[in-house]
Amino acid sequence: MRTLVSESQLRSGRGKTVYWTVFVIVAVTFTTAFVFPLIWMVLGAMKTAPELARVPPTLLPQQANVGAYVEAWNFMSLAHFFLNTIIVVLGAWLVQLAVDVPAAYALSKLKPKLGNVVLGMMLGTLMLPASALLVPTYLTITDVPLLGVNLVNSPLAIWLPGAANAFNIYLLKRFFDQIPGELIEASTLDGAGPLGTMWRVVLPLSRPVLGVVSILSIVTAWKDFIWPLLVFSDPQAQTLSVALQRFAPDTPVNLLLAGLVLASVPTIVVFLIFQRNILAGLTAGSVKG
Amino acid sequence: MSTAVRLPSAALGVRPAARLRRRIRENVTAYGLLCAALLVFAGFSWYPIVRGILLSFQQVNFVTAPTWVGLENFQKLFADPQFWEAWVNTLLFTGLALVFGFAVPFAIAVLLNELRHGKAYFRLVVYLPVMLPPVVVALLWKWFYDPGPGLFNSALHAVGLPGLSWLDSPTTAMLSLVLVSTWANMGSATLIYLAALQTISGDLYEAAELDGAGLWRRLWHVTIPQTRFALLVMLLLQLVATMQVFTEPYIMTGGGPGDSTVTVLLLLYKYAFFYNDFGTASALSLLLFVVLGVFGLFYVRLTRRAD
């Protein structure tokens, strides 16, 4: 495909020199800027605390202490906080799907009276910056209207507000809209109700968008910090991110680094596996056309 | 409404009553499927919006009923020197973040789009930091910024330059925070620009070249106008995102040194969760919303038009 610089320009002698010079500069800069800090973190965890304090720093650990990862795991009881995080993240994901998929299906295919008003009111919340709702949503969590329960320190405090996700509903609805009405009618003629049609016809066709929504919601929930910081006041209930910043001042730096590496592994692995879907979701979210 | 329904059904020979019953049943099913979403939106989105507005004009102590105080919360904010400091700092952060976070990813995307090799690697690598939890990024960079054995000062010393005080001096602290945040977030902007660049038709460059346009003129007259939409959308998104900066100052500087990195959201957090002054915190949220709502409105209009 033709871009800013043409193929013929690149093929010329000068073009080739410039191209490869630029290529090497980009390769070195990118690797230094984005990969090196991560390697530095992984290696740093294996150094001893005195070695980490040395000026100038060493590149490779003098004695690679892989055991620091195990030590960090035990020192900060990371198993406990990993489990907390997994419960919060998986729950948030499932609740989001259970709430948002039927809603998007109803708005897209059943087109109820006032459906557009409902959709508009949901989309309107996208205009609100998350921080503007921090205080009133927190107060709502401490005393849920009608039920009168306090959800502080309960994963529900993450799950329920997370399910009110207009962006997911919008993404799902747009996809459902593209599913031909004939398929729905055929299914209805076969005697399937709207729920059966959703389950057997629409959802199997919607795997790509369900994948995107799932990964986005899992990664977002794993990375979230400020909301879990507010709603988990009990240290035992905290997620990994919140616990790590609480431990930071009192943890030897090598163990803290090991903890940071361990906390990053899940999202990095998810990214390496689902790159395609993540990047698709990224562009679906912001720029269309 | 009723005549509109009766006419076609009569033509089809369906009894209007049956037609109406079907329509009602469909609506009941639809609202059945919608009810969970309506409940969570009502409880955790719409109700808090209304409550937030009310709270801005109230004083709450959770012992007695909230009292109506009019504009007192706002007056209290305006009298607080930290309030002005926080806005100046936040605007400084946003301004600097736009300089780096807006221009640099675009330049990188244009560059990457020209490369014929290793594209997959560059795309992967530039997005890697986006996947790290922000807490990890903040704690990692805090260690890099350490004036003693920190990575950055060591690198400066290695090439014979004096070290900087990074987070420890009021003049550099905010810039240091902007650098972290840019590093952590620019992957998404880069990839969005890259996607936009790939939709540009090669014919346009071809035609420009035939008209004698050099590299810079092609960039200015083809690339930038063709990606105008993506640029505008990202500008709005970044404005909204960077004005809500919290995690970096909270973890890395705690607002210091002095008040040099107190941001609006950090101040809001302090009012709500240190002073338990939820009324004033809500007033601050409302101000933040009014400022950001303008950009949000533009964003929604822009994306709607693109659909």
From TrEMBL, chain A:
Domain ABC transmembrane type-1: 82-274
TM region(s), chain numbering: 20-43, 81-105, 117-139, 151-172, 209-233, 253-274
Bilayer topology: Multi-pass membrane protein
Keywords of the record: Cell membrane, Membrane, Transmembrane, Transmembrane helix, Transport
UniProt xrefs under InterPro entries: MetI-like, MetI-like_sf
Intracellular or extracellular location(s): Cell membrane
Keyword Transport listed: yes
Family annotation (PROSITE patterns): ABC_TM1 (PS50928)
UniProt superkingdom: Bacteria
Subcellular location, principal: membrane
Tagged with keyword Transmembrane helix: yes
Any Pfam family hit: BPD_transp_1
Family: Belongs to the binding-protein-dependent transport system permease family.
PANTHER family per UniProt: ABC TRANSPORTER PERMEASE PROTEIN MG189-RELATED, ABC TRANSPORTER PERMEASE PROTEIN MG189-RELATED-RELATED
Name of the molecule in the record: Carbohydrate ABC transporter permease
Organism in which the protein naturally occurs: Kutzneria chonburiensis
TrEMBL record, chain B:
Topology with respect to the bilayer: Multi-pass membrane protein
TM ranges: 28-49, 86-112, 124-144, 173-196, 227-246, 278-300
Residues of the ABC transmembrane type-1 domain: 87-299
Localisation: Cell membrane
UniProtKB keywords: Cell membrane, Membrane, Transmembrane, Transmembrane helix, Transport
Keyword Cell membrane: yes
Top-level taxon: Bacteria
Chief location: membrane
Presence of the UniProt keyword Cytoplasm in the record: no
Family: Belongs to the binding-protein-dependent transport system permease family.
Protein name: Carbohydrate ABC transporter permease
Protein species of origin: Kutzneria chonburiensis
Lineage: Bacteria, Bacillati, Actinomycetota, Actinomycetes, Pseudonocardiales
